[in-house]
Amino acid sequence: MSTVEEPVTGTRRWVGQSVPRKEDPKLLTGRAGYVGDVVLPGMLHGAVLRSPHAHARILSIDTSEAEALPGVVVVLTGATAAEHVDPMPAFCAEPVEQRAIAVDRVRFPGEAVAAVAATDRYIAEDACARIRVEYEVLPVLVDPVAAMDPSATRVHETLDSNVVFHRSLDWGEVDADLARAHTVVRSSARWHRMGAHPIETAGAVASWDPFGRSMTVWSNSNFINFLPWAFAGILRVPTNRLRMVPCAVGGSFGSKHLITKVISITGALSKACGRPVQYLEDRADNVAANDNVPTSSSPTASTATPWPSPSAPTGSAACATTSRAC
Q1: Which end of the chain, N or C, is surrounded by fewer C-beta atoms within 10 Å?
Q2: Is the pTM of this model over 0.70?
Q3: Contact criterion met (CB below 8 Å) for 60 and 131
C-alpha cells in the first residue's frame, strides 16, 4: 500500500524567502572599491593605440614623438611588451599565439598596437595620437563560411587553414532516418557581432616589485579565484609571487571572466617602468577589443527530424556537423 507524504507546513529558511544580499550595504553607501578607486604612490595611467585596419602587417612603429611628450614615462609596442610578458592563454590545442599588443600583424580592427603609461590619462591618450604606424593592408575576411575555403587568406599563418577545429557527431542510422523522415528542415543561421557592455569596463592596476620579483594586481575580473595560474603565466611571475586583489565588479554579463588583455598591458607597462600602472578601458576600447567580444559568425546547421509514424522508429536523430572559422 502506497503512502502520500503531507506537504511541509513549517516556515522554510530559503525557499520563498527574501534573502538579504551581503554586498548591498557597501554598494548602497558608496563604500565598494572599484578599479578606478585604486590610488597608489607614483601610479601612472595607461592608454592604448589601436589598429584602424581589420588585417594588416605592421611595417614600422615610430614612438619617438610620443616618448618626447612631457609626462610620458614609457611606450611599449608589441615587440617590446613581449620582453616583459608572455602570450595570453589560448584555449585550444592548435598553435595560435594571442598577445594583448599585436606583434608584426593585426587581425581585427581595434587590435592594440602600442601602449603608453603617463602621469595622467589625458597625456597618455595624447601620446598615443603621436605614435606613427606604417601598415601594409592585407586581404580581409568578413564571412566565416567563406573563410573556411582552403584558398582563403589565412588569419594565423601557423595553421593550415582558418578552420581551427572540426568534429562530426552522428547518432543512430542517420541516412536511413533522413530518407524516411516526413519532414527535413535545413537552415542557415546568422547573427551579428555582439558584446557585453557593462557600465564599468574591464580594468586593472598592476604594481611590479623588481626587488622581490613579485606582482600585485587589482582587477575587476570575476574569475580571480579560478584563474590566477593563467594570470601568473602571462606576467611571467610564479603563482606564489602574484597577489590578486579583487575589486567590485560594476557589471559583467560575461565580459569580465578573463580580461587577460588589461592585466597583460598593465603588467607589461609596470615591469617596463617599475611603477604601478592603472588602465581602465574607455568605451571605444571596450566595444572594439574586450576579451569577450567575438567577431560576427555565420555557422551553418542542418537538422533532420524523423516524423513519428508506425513505420518509423523514434529515438534516433542526426546531429549536424558544425565548423567554425576563427
Answers
A1: N
A2: yes
A3: no
